[in-house]
Write a structure and sequence with these properties.
Strand content of chain A: 35-45%
Number of helices of chain A: 5
Helix content of chain A: 10-25%
Oligomer: homodimer
Number of strands of chain A: 11
Order of helices and strands of chain A: HEHEEEEEHEHHEEEE
Radius of gyration of chain A: 19 Å
């Protein structure tokens, strides 16, 4: 029995990927904290490394025409790392269901303290048909899922009523990713740009949620609509000029 | 004599800093190449590491109120690294004169081939008085300078005649650095955003020059004026709404 249990535990820990990086000064914001887009880029790169190491990577282009796309992202952190801190990201597959896969992360500082948690939902896209591909019955992915409780609230329902945009952004070259669409880490960046630097010296965006609805392309003009729900909770919608929904999100300051 | 020469050579090589990084997929542009802002951030971080290791770092804030500021940057590269490439940056102080210090870099790929060269000019700013501080007579900096020929053309004289801006950008939160000014790597990003994605799949911005003239701040609106000088050479000026010059630059596609 003990042997069985040990075997199971080792097996679970083998499914967890651990990746470290140092916080560089030129990746910090005006409040001296690691920026969300740079943290987010590390999250994406770790997801890819973890998938590569565990046999379920799909780097575009490939013969199966498959690529992982982010559907939801929630980043919670009461403390954002500062210059020269050594940070470890731990990541694992939490659940595989229908056409989605939940991936979770812990953000750990050099003292071993968990300073942040991340919940993300991914789909496997067939980039020829632009449709969700599903994972197949004998996917290696399901074997990778582990039953580890992260303790992060589910994403909120986002509803924005205001009809006047808080900001407009035209998609430029530096917004684009390898596939020629707006990089998924640009949306939290756009959302955070709706606030002034004072918001970041007075507090910290302790929870950020992003829903990815449609891709946006070079030259498209994104309109950002924002409603303040509670004292420090903001709901945001990004739409194109002709009303196509692109992304929704929540920012909560603490 | 041979011993003398050996000693000198070792001494020079000790003055050179070598720093490596891997090109991550989410740091690549729509043409699959490492982006200039991400490369530039590595250049800045290497400059700081090299200065720290050689005793002339000034990380803001500090008791002397000194901080390094970038005055000029020239990045030349015929080949920009792609996903998963392992890149080494070599950097050294080239020359110390008046209130300026020239720093140079080589960008080396995993086969040992130099794929890029960087020339940069720095000044030491007293951030209380906002004036150039100079290096003092007994600076450790001059001892660090080495007479190594990089072979990169001097920056061009930039003159833009057009009166119609090619683009306008309002400085947002994500543009700001630790000091609350627009991050120096944002200017090459703004310049490159004047071109469409097709320019980057058809060619490569093989030479980028940036002159840093004045700092810009949150909420300021930058106007970008651009003249095409030769078939693939573009001269750019960034000014605020009221005509204050902020930055000038050149982009040459190959």
């Amino acid at each position: 029995m003990i042997q069985e249990k040990d075997k199971e535990e080792i097996s679970d820990s083998e499914k967890i990927g651990e990746y470290s990086f140092d916080v560089m000064p030129f990746n910090c914001d005006c409040a001296g904290r690691l920026t969300i887009p740079v943290l987010g880029t590390h999250l994406l790169n770790c997801a890819r490394k973890h998938a590569l190491e565990h046999g379920f990577d799909h780097t575009c282009p490939n013969p199966e025409h498959l690529t992982w796309v982010l559907s939801r992202l929630v980043v919670e952190s009461d403390r954002r790392p500062r210059i020269d801190e050594h940070i470890t990201l731990r990541t694992w597959v939490r659940r595989v269901y229908r056409n989605f896969c939940d991936r979770e992360y812990e953000i750990i500082d050099s003292t071993g303290t968990t300073i942040g948690k991340v919940f993300s939902v991914w789909a496997l896209l067939d980039y020829k048909t632009r449709r969700s591909a599903g994972f197949g019955k004998d996917s290696v992915l399901e074997e990778q899922a582990i039953d580890k409780e992260l303790g992060i609230d589910s994403p909120r329902r986002v509803r924005v009523k205001t009809e006047t945009p808080a900001a407009v952004h035209k998609v430029v070259y530096s917004d684009l990713d390898l596939n020629g669409h707006t990089n998924s880490m640009k949306y939290p960046e756009f959302f955070l740009n709706l606030f002034s630097p004072e918001a970041y010296t007075a507090g910290i965006p302790a929870r950020i949620e992003v829903q990815y609805i449609n891709e946006s392309r070079y030259g498209e003009q994104l309109q950002f609509y924002m409603d303040q729900k509670e004292e420090a909770e903001y709901h945001i919608e990004a739409r194109t000029d002709d009303g196509k929904p692109i992304s929704k999100g929540v920012v909560i300051f603490k």
